[in-house]
Amino acid sequence: MKPRMIHHKSCRRAGLILSLTAVMGALSPLTALAASPEFARTAEEWARLQDNTLEYAEIPDLIHEYNATVQNNQYDYRKFREDYGDTNSEVADSYNDLAQDFYNDMSGETDAGSMMSDLQLEIQAKNMLDQADNTLEDSRIYLLTYEMAEANLTATAQSNMISYHKKQLELEQKQTDLNLAREKYSLEQVKQQAGTATEVDVLTARENLQTTENRIKEMESELSNLRERLLISLGWKYNDSPEISGLPEVDLSRIDTMNPDQDLEEALENNYTLKINRRKLENARSQTTRESLETTIKSNEKQIGASLSSAYKGVISARLSYNQAQAEVQLEEANTRIAVGTLQAGTITSLQYQEQEYKLESCRLDARAAAIELFQSMETYDWSVKGLAAAE
Fold it and tell me: Residue 19 and residue 227: Cα distance in Å, rounded?
């Protein structure tokens, strides 16, 4: 039987299949090297990215330079162009070449093993010919796919940093709960000794205290895991300890510039899914494929409009929640001032005053959380305009 030859083009085909399916996959982080050459940025810009402090505004640049998936995609894109060229016709020619390689590998021998091997090679060759006839790929589609992947990774990292700060607020809230639970447990013990509380009251207070303590441990673990995911995505090792700075202050004036009707044209122009499908339409040769893509594109356009509108409604809803949270803080500040006087007059207990202080602190934490939610909703809207509006 003729020896089976391994052709480098067959290896390229395997890379072609894997590279698109692994666009969003995870690789070992390449923290030592940036993706861009040193001359691509000023010394000040490199220093800002490498100062071991994570700032929200740096996330797009950190993803571009240090995210392992982005670095791998940049390599795959260059390799695709080297192996397959830029145009759709060049990609089709590569499939035809691969088909011929499979035909050349057929031995023509009549023994059972050779016939089975030749049959498999013939099937692979025919598949390659079908791919040559039907492929819509070109380097532009690859580039857009990888750009979309990088944008999604950036948006995810931003979301993780926002979630990290939200989790910190939740932990602060739960620690406030813990302090109050301890006070109540101590009070129930004193009351039991005085005969004004039952053992059930004490056990209930202790159970509430233990539940709060357990929840704090869970939240600390969740916060640690979220921090690790965020750092790894940006090029640090999981056990590195960079400083994570605060989020930008919420800017209500941003909302005044948002208009889904006016922003729709830009959202359509920037949308990665829509650009990919339009490029596929340019490459399509059969009428059936063209008609299918035209239908898909019309659906994409409708979905982008709906996604943008939904994102805007999310901003308006978050603004209402933010305004309400601010009003509740003002109300509890007034109630706390009143409570100071009533405590001095002896008409409320120390615990009742502490409960009022707890309400005020809780409202302040809620207001900070509402500000973060509003900021995140604005970021979601902006990403919808910049190309990530849902279009599937």
Answer: 28
User: In a 3-state reduction of DSSP, which class is residue 54?
Assistant: strand
pTM: 0.85
Task: Provide the phi-psi class of 346: left if phi over 0, else alpha when psi is between -120 and 50, else beta.
Answer: left
Answer whether 115's CB lies under 8 Å from 109's CB.
yes
Q: Tell me what pLDDT residue 28 has.
A: 31
Check the CA dihedral 146-152-158-161 and report its sign.
Answer: negative
Which parts of the chain have pLDDT scores under 50? 1-32
**In this predicted structure, what is the pLDDT of residue 314?**
98
Which two tokens mark 213? 């303590």
SS3 3: coil
pLDDT tens string 106-120? 988 888 888 899 899
Taking each helix axis as running N to C, give the angle between helix 59-66 and helix 139-193, from 0 to 180 degrees, rounded to the nearest 10: 120
| Whether 237 contacts 231, CB under 8 Å | yes
User: How far is residue 18 CA from its own chain's centroid?
Assistant: 22
Per-residue pLDDT tens over the stretch 160-170: 999 999 999 99
Question: What pLDDT, on the 0 to 100 scale, is given for residue 261?
Answer: 96
Which backbone phi and psi does 54 adopt, to 5 degrees? -95, 115
What distance in Å separates the CA atoms of residue 48 and residue 61, rounded to the nearest whole number? 10
| Amino acid found at 217 | K
Helix (H) or strand (E) holding 243: strand 243-244
Q: Where are the alpha helices (DSSP H) in the chain?
A: 8-21, 43-49, 59-66, 68-84, 88-105, 112-134, 139-193, 199-233, 253-256, 260-270, 272-283, 287-345, 350-383
Q: How far apart are CA 83 and CA 75, in angstroms?
A: 12
Q: How far apart are the first and last CA of the chain?
A: 50
What token pair was written down for 9? 């083009």
